[in-house]
Amino acid sequence: MRIGNLDSRLVLVTDRGAVDVATASGGEFGPDPQEVYVRWEAFVDWAAALDLDSAAAVPFDPERLGAPVPRPGQLFAIGMNYRDHAAEAGFDLPESPPVFTKFRGSITGPSGRVVLPGETVDWEVELVVVIGRTASRVSAEDAWSHVAGITAGQDLSERTTQLAGPAPQFSLGKSFPGFTPMGPWLVTLDELVVAGLDRDALDLGCSVNGESVQKGNTADLVFSVPELIARLSAVLPLEPGDVIFTGTPAGVGAARDPRWFLKPGDRLVSTIAGIGELDQQFVAASKEM
């Protein structure tokens, strides 16, 4: 199942187009894409009984898609969670997951323009996990059962702001408008099985103007998705609709020699197997419309 946010309305995405959930359910489920996670188990049961082949589906322009999780109560982001990324940054592998957040005002859909607030904006493609059932002190073995689905994300980062002292400002440096694109939709775990994909080993990567800059696989995570959920939920409950950005592989611009950052006119395309792609184009602040 693919679940989308089309013009701020909850939809099921099919090969024929988008099925409006509020309409198809006769109002049993509302149009708000965020609210579906609160009733996730009931929604999954309803969707399983729906005849998608006969449901009214409308073709749509992908540029109308918003983030599948537009207003998470909590957004966790994990640093240094790929072995090769830790190595390129010159750090030892962490003994526990480094955690920060990205503020909600930075969340946007899978495509569109992003205004560059400075000259050191970097890319970080990431697998994003969305919680579907409250997780409190869960084991890693049980963690996937608390997941609604996965999506693609970019942890765009203004490195100068991020590293400004005396204490680094990770959350601020990663939360400018448009710095948290997600999408193109949420993919449930059963959809990966149908596609013959391993939820714990998904290829991901991104390119700038057609040139590959990152390429990795989630099998190389230092802390796997189940381990992240177990460790986070040991500290505080994870609630339906919460989001976890799981980290990025090697290839970021700040670690290159010479360093390489995004500039006006650049196009960043990020992909994750079984999910789809994000497409951001960057403009100078003076050209914001």
What does the model show?
The chain is α+β, with helices and mostly antiparallel strands and 289 residues long. The protein has two domains: 2-60, no CATH class; 65-287, Alpha-Beta Complex (Fumarylacetoacetate hydrolase, domain 2), CATH 3.90.850. The chain contains seven helices and 18 strands. The strands form three sheets. Strands 1, 2, 3, 4, 5, 6, 7, 10, 11, 13 and 16 form an eleven-stranded mixed beta sheet that branches. The protein has a five-stranded mixed beta sheet with strand order 8-18-17-14-15, with no helix packed on it. Strand 17 and strand 18 form a beta hairpin. The mean pLDDT is 96. Belongs to the FAH family. This is 2-keto-4-pentenoate hydratase/2-oxohepta-3-ene-1,7-dioic acid hydratase in catechol pathway. Residues 75-282 form the Fumarylacetoacetase-like C-terminal domain. GO terms for molecular function: catalytic activity; metal ion binding.
Write a brief structural summary.
The strands form three sheets. Strands 1, 2, 3, 4, 5, 6, 7, 10, 11, 13 and 16 form an eleven-stranded mixed sheet that branches. A five-stranded mixed sheet has the order 8-18-17-14-15, with no helix packed on it. The chain is α+β, with helices and mostly antiparallel strands.
Number of H- or I-type helical stretches = 7
Task: Summarize the biggest pleated sheet.
Answer: 11 strands, mixed
Query: Structural class per helix/strand content?
Result: alpha+beta
Please report the total strand number as a whole number. Answer: 18
Domain Fumarylacetoacetase-like C-terminal: 75-282
GO molecular function: catalytic activity; metal ion binding
Pfam families: FAA_hydrolase
Family: Belongs to the FAH family.
